[in-house]
Every structure is written in C-alpha cells, then in structure tokens.
Design a protein that fits this description.
The protein is mainly alpha-helical. The chain folds into 2 domains: 12-367, no CATH class; 388-463, no CATH class. The chain is 60% helix and 4% strand. It has 20 helices and 5 strands. It has helices at 12-16, 18-27, 39-43, 52-60, 70-84, 89-114, 117-128, 134-138, 143-160, 164-177, 184-195, 204-220, 236-247, 254-258, 263-284, 289-301, 319-335, 339-387, 400-405, 447-455, and strands spanning 392-396, 413-414, 417-418, 420-422, 459-463. The protein has a 3-stranded parallel beta sheet. A two-stranded antiparallel ribbon has the order 2-3. β2 and β3 form a beta hairpin.
Length: 465
C-alpha cells in the first residue's frame, strides 16, 4: 500500500480524540433520556425468567420478525434490568463506550490502509456527525447496531493487522449481536483482494462459518414471507440502494429541527455527487482505496436491500462507517491536490458537517424530551398499579404522543397480560399509524367487559395528572 503524502507521526490525541469528543458533544442529551417504544418489550423480558430453561428461552428464542440476537438485545436487557431495574443511564454508558471504541477502530483501520493521519482522523468524524446515528445513540433497542458495528470493525482491524485470533473472537461474538455480522468475510475478501492477496486463503474459514450461520439462521429463525419484512429479489434492490444513498446525505426533518432552509438538503446532495465523482476518478487512476471503502458501504448495506417495504434510516448506522472512511480519504486526497481542490474539500466538508451536527443534536434533544413523556406516564401507572394490585386500570387523558412513546409498546404486562386499557373518550385523541402494525382496538375494553370488571370491583379508572 503506498504511503500518503502526509504520512508522518501525529500526536495520538489528534488522531483518536476528535471523533469521541464530537460524539459526546452532539449526543450528550442521550445520557438523561429514558426508555420508549420497543424498549418496553425487552425490559419485560426478565419477568418471564423463572428458571434455567426459561432463561435459555429468553436468550435464544427467535423473534417474530425472524431475528436472533441473543447478545445485542436479549442478554443486554436481561442483565441491565436484573442489575439496575428500569434505569436507563447504565444503558447509555455501555452504548457510548461501545460507540467510542468503534470510532477508534475506524481510525486504526483507515490509518493502516491509507497511511494518512488526516484521513484517519476525519473518517470517524464524518461517521459520527451523521444525524442518522441519532436513533442508535439514544435508543437502547438500537444497541444491536452499535454492538454489531464494534464487532465488525474490531474483526477487520485485527485481520488487517494480521491478528487472526482476535479477528476470530470478534467475528464469532458478532453473530450474537446482529445478523449483519454475516457479511464480514465479504468485507475481508474485498480488502485482501486489493491489498493483501497473499492472505486470501485465510478468509475461507470465515466464509464457511458465515454460510453455516446463514443456513442455521434461516432454519431456526426463518424470514417473514409477507408484510414489510418480506424479501424482494428484483429491480427494487437498485431503487432501495438509491434511496439509502440519498438518505445518507439528507438529515430528516432538518428544517423543522434546526430552522435551516429546505434548500440545505439539496445543497448537501452536492457532497454525494462529489464523492461519486471522486470514486470514478480514483477508479480510472487505478487507485483502489476509495473503491474498497465504497465496496464496504455496499456490502454492509446489502443485508437490508431486499427489504424494499421496510426502508429505515437507522439501517444505515453501520454502513455509514464505510462512507465516513470514503469521505475521510477523499478529503485527504483533495488536501494534497492543489489549492483549488483543497478549498473545494473544505467547503464540501463544512456543507456536510454543520447541518449534520445541528440536526443530530436537535434530534437527540427531541427524542430525549419524548422519552420523558414516556417516563412520566409509565412511572405514574406503575405507582398506581403497586397501590392497587390485581386491578385493571382504565387510563384516561392519554395523548397521542404518550400512546406512541409508551402505551403502544406494552409496558404494563403482568402474568402475560396487560393490566392497562384506555377509556373510549381517549380514542379520538390517538393519531392512527397503520404502518406501525399496532391494532388500536386491543387497547380499549368493549362495554360488556368494562361493565363486568366494574361489577367485580376489578376496574380502577385513573386520569393522568
């Protein structure tokens, strides 16, 4: 691998501190955020554990969506709930520690491949500022993406530095985090083909392991054949890829969150165009660093491309690490290519960084405030339930925001059944979201059931303060 023109020793802190410090500066509201949405499903997992067989079932039983993630979801929630109850701060500490470790891995990987301290410093910066990471940085339920990214990046770092035992350890642990880990052999093969062909034979056992996992996963946790999680192997793959590529350079709700003009989103697409031009130019010159990083982006995105009916921004959390590498290398290359390209690179970087950071921080604060809405509701109802054990609570005064932040995700379960329903007067206040799959009727008692429970003195009507 040819050395970068500015390859020389840099102080360690200039390499490894900028991205972690930015991570803390942007996403700090996450530390005071509480649980919401899918978190409640996993927080309730511990109540079903009574003995060793039930523990095994809680850890290893596949989800209804055809996923199997014993470490990133099951063990993470079981252990934290057992140790800390429904306290969110320990979740955030683990999440930030894992993500910061991943940022360091990105720096190490880019420095090893390109020899450029500038590219190695900027790559994790371009990754962490992207507002799409907001979900992963504030939601415990999205920790699987953070943990899987760490496993993949650690395995890559170890393999690139020829520490094969470490690569194997991170690779195997990654299967417990998220099924995306299955693409690691493809990532490693791309690197070895371009820069270390002498070690190609060492990737064969990784391919065999991934294939065995894939077969076993499809047998034990088969994918859904219908609905939004159905797999589509047709021309929609290209459309889905184009959607994700655009999404990577377009912060959601940018104007609403930051007050920046809507034209900012269009201007940010210039960054995407510039990266595409840079990639083509590098390919024509047979410079393959950019090709590798773009290839990694495609490989990391590939598991979700068939999900044409479920295009979701947080699926980009891991692929954006590779896009950050591409951006870091593009900036470093332009920096050493004359004043005009240097000025262009600075302008494009600013055009990407500033709106991204503002959007990411604003979105984090929005989710943090929404989580407090969920916390107030859940803690209030838990207190009422503790004072009235065995009674069904008929909850009044629930807003649409409270419903979708908490109630819709069943935080009130006992003996396998919910003990909270909503009053019929609440129904008009709940904004319907049919795409969520939530059936609103399940949260309301029919008149006959309400009368029967009232007659048995088993119903408590409570209005939220």
């Amino acid at each position: 691998m040819p050395a970068s023109p500015e390859a020389r020793p840099w102080p360690w802190w200039t390499l490894y501190l900028p991205a972690p410090l930015l991570c803390l500066a942007i996403y700090w509201p996450s530390f005071s955020a509480w649980f919401q949405q899918d978190d409640f499903v996993w927080l309730g997992l511990l109540r079903d554990v009574h003995d060793f067989p039930s523990l095994l079932n809680a850890l290893f039983h596949p989800s209804q969506h055809g996923t199997w993630r014993p470490l990133g979801e099951r063990a993470f929630y079981l252990l934290s709930t057992w140790l800390f109850g429904w306290e969110s701060l320990p979740h955030r500490i683990v999440l930030f520690a894992t993500q910061i470790a991943s940022l360091i891995m990105v720096t190490r990987i880019v420095l090893r491949i390109t020899g450029s301290p500038l590219a190695a410093t900027l790559a994790p910066v371009f990754w962490i500022v992207n507002s799409i990471l907001t979900t992963a940085m504030i939601s415990s339920g999205a920790y699987i993406h953070v943990l899987c990214a760490f496993c993949l990046l650690t395995a890559l770092d170890c393999a690139i530095h020829e520490r094969w035992l470490g690569a194997w350890a991170a690779f195997l642990i990654g299967f417990g985090a998220m099924e995306t880990n299955v693409v690691f052999p493809a990532l490693l093969t791309a690197y070895l083909l371009l820069f270390a062909r002498a070690n190609l034979r060492k990737v064969i056992p990784f391919w065999i392991t991934s294939l065995a996992y894939f077969v076993l996963h499809m047998k034990l946790a088969p994918k859904m054949s219908g609905g939004s999680y159905a797999m589509h192997w047709d021309s929609s793959l290209w459309t889905t890829f184009a959607t994700y590529w655009t999404m990577a350079f377009q912060p959601q709700n940018l104007t609403a969150l930051t007050g920046l003009p809507a034209a900012t989103n269009s201007a940010m697409q210039m960054v995407a165009l510039a990266l595409a031009i840079f990639l083509a130019a590098q390919l024509l010159r047979k410079q393959f660093h950019a090709v590798l990083f773009f290839g990694w982006f495609v490989i990391l995105l590939s598991p979700v491309l068939p999900l044409a009916g479920h295009v979701t921004d947080y699926y980009l959390t891991i692929p954006l690490a590779a896009l950050g590498m591409l951006g870091g290398w593009a900036f470093a290359t332009a920096w050493h290519s004359g004043m005009a390209l240097r000025a262009t690179a600075v302008l494009l970087a600013a055009l990407y960084l500033v709106p991204s950071m503002l959007a990411a921080n604003a979105a984090t604060r929005w989710w943090q405030q929404r989580s407090k809405v969920a916390e107030h509701l859940v803690r209030t109802v838990h207190t009422v339930h503790s004072a009235n054990p065995g009674k069904i609570i008929l909850l009044d005064g629930v807003t649409s925001e409270q419903f979708w932040a908490a109630v819709a995700h069943y935080p009130f379960i006992e003996a396998g059944k919910t003990y909270v329903f909503l009053t019929r007067e609440t129904r008009p206040q709940i904004e319907p979201h049919p795409e969520s799959g939530v059936i609103l009727d399940e949260f309301f008692l029919n008149p006959e059931s309400e009368e029967r429970l009232q007659a048995d003195d088993a119903l408590l009507r409570f209005r939220l303060p």
